[in-house]
């Protein structure tokens, strides 16, 4: 589950990581109030107005702007709230901005040498260890750095038995070229950041930029946080941070009815039981010349109600030209699933306008095939995987 910048910063701050302080606002009036309050708390004269959407690259899209007085806080907030922010990480349509973070300006006017670093904590799946990735080349173009000058990005792997050790924090500060007070602040920063990552059960923390001011403060200016959804039961307060306005509406609906659904770009909708079979089915569709419109795992209990719910989800996607249902009947019997497909189809009346290919294999597969074939519905059945693929290819041609 992804968080907004302001939520990520709240978590960071609760673990003692120094952050650029801010207050979130839903309207320009609230933004002005927030700015006044911040000035009282921090003494800041200038403010940064930052669009809160689940996408990076906001600065490049005009979603991060400096306001030098309260009029500018109001007018900039007015421009940003409600806009469709297009960044290198959003679709062409962009993302609607519902709220802004009004933050203290931490780049002192006249500060000739603010340094921007990059720092991320995430899991290295190849080694099975967490790692800190960091670079002196932080700021808005870290993707270019990663592509063109990858040697400028360092990684430090963390042993799960010992956690981040003191010498590792010092090594990171040293590699960033820091000395004196800044060195000390950076070791504190990394240590607190790693603790925040571990104890919040996150799968990614990305701070870009980490700012070093000319008076040697180390501050998290941005925060991109992904929490591990499987651990949310341990963090009720974080679970409440979910903002479904930022998520794919079909995926949200799927979650509500307990289906694992991921939206994709292709034209063949698929409904499968089991994640592994679902992956194999997507490969099969590719080989047949189509491309999957979604990943959908209906799970072990594919009864009529679930099949119907899954049908409805798939059909929300206007790109879908065919549906492939691929079910292995182990515990759930194929004839029950077939009955589910037939019932769901009938229940949906005219809503189903695309050809459907059903492949049922396993317990009672033969009875299931008969059920489908005798249903009088324009549903094609298949027993073999290859046969199903060929039928998909035929309807797409
Ligand atoms: P992103 O573009 O979505 O990654 O958003 P960031 O939060 O990283 O902000 C983008 C850029 O805005 C940063 O790289 C900074 O250069 C700039 N920025 C952020 N905070 C401040 C600030 O307090 N003062 C000034 N002058 N610039 C800032
Ligand atoms: Mn950033």
Structure, briefly:
The protein is of the alpha+beta class. It has 13 helices and 18 strands. The strands form five sheets. Strands 7, 8, 9, 10, 11 and 12 form a six-stranded antiparallel beta sheet that branches. The protein has a four-stranded antiparallel beta sheet with strand order 1-6-2-3, with helices on one face.
CATH topology of the largest domain, by name, is: D-amino Acid Aminotransferase, Chain A, domain 1
Shape: elongated
The first-level CATH class of the largest domain is given as Alpha Beta
- Helix content range of the residues, please? 25-40%
Give the termini distance in whole angstroms: 39 Å
How many beta-strand segments?
18
Can you walk me through this structure?
The chain has 397 residues and is α+β, with helices and mostly antiparallel strands. The protein has 3 domains: 158 residues, 2-Layer Sandwich (D-amino Acid Aminotransferase, Chain A, domain 1), CATH 3.30.470.20; 85 residues, ATP-grasp fold, A domain (Dna Ligase, domain 1), CATH 3.30.1490; 149 residues, Succinyl-CoA synthetase domains (Rossmann fold), CATH 3.40.50. The chain has 13 helices and 18 strands. The strands form 5 sheets. Strands 7, 8, 9, 10, 11 and 12 form a 6-stranded antiparallel beta sheet that branches. Strands 1-6-2-3 form a 4-stranded antiparallel beta sheet, covered by helices on one side. The two termini are 39 Å apart. The relative contact order is 0.09. Bound molecules: guanosine-5'-diphosphate and manganese (II) ion. The site of guanosine-5'-diphosphate has 18 residues, from strand 2, strand 3 and strand 10.
């Amino acid at each position: 589950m992804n968080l907004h910048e302001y939520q990520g910063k709240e978590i960071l701050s609760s673990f003692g990581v120094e952050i650029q302080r801010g207050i979130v606002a839903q309207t320009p009036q609230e933004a002005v109030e927030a700015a006044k309050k911040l000035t009282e708390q921090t003494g800041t004269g200038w403010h940064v107005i930052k669009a809160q959407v689940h996408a990076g690259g906001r600065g490049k899209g005009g979603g991060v702007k400096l306001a030098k007085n309260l009029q500018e806080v109001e007018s900039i907030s007015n421009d940003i709230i409600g806009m469709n922010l297009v960044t290198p990480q959003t679709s062409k349509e962009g993302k609607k901005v519902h709220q802004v973070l009004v933050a203290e300006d931490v780049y002192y006017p006249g500060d000739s040498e603010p340094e921007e670093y990059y720092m991320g904590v995430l899991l290295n799946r190849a080694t099975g260890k967490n790692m800190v990735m960091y670079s002196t080349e932080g700021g808005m173009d870290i993707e270019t750095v990663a592509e063109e000058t990858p040697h400028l990005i360092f990684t430090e792997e963390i042993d799960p038995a010992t956690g981040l050790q003191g010498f590792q924090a010092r090594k990171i500060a040293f590699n960033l070229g820091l000395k004196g007070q800044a060195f000390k602040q950076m070791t504190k920063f990394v240590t607190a950041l790693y603790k925040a990552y571990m104890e919040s059960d996150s799968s990614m923390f990305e701070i870009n930029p980490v700012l070093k001011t000319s008076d040697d403060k180390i501050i998290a200016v941005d925060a991109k946080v992904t929490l591990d959804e499987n651990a949310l039961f341990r963090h009720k307060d974080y679970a409440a941070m979910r903002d479904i306005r930022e998520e794919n509406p079909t995926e949200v609906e799927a979650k509500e009815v307990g289906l694992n659904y991921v939206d994709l770009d292709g034209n063949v909708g698929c409904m499968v039981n089991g994640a592994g079979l679902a992956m194999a089915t997507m490969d099969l569709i590719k080989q047949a010349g189509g491309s999957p419109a979604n990943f959908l795992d209906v799970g072990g209990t594919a009864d009529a109600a679930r099949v119907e719910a899954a049908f409805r989800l798939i059909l929300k996607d206007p790109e879908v030209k065919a549906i492939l249902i691929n079910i292995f009947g182990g515990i759930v019997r194929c004839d029950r699933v077939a009955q589910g497909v037939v019932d769901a189809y009938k229940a949906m009346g005219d809503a189903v306008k695309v050809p459907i290919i059903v492949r049922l294999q396993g317990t009672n597969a033969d009875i299931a095939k008969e059920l489908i074939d005798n249903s009088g519905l324009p549903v094609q059945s298949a027993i073999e995987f290859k046969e199903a693929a060929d039928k998909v290819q035929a309807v797409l041609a």
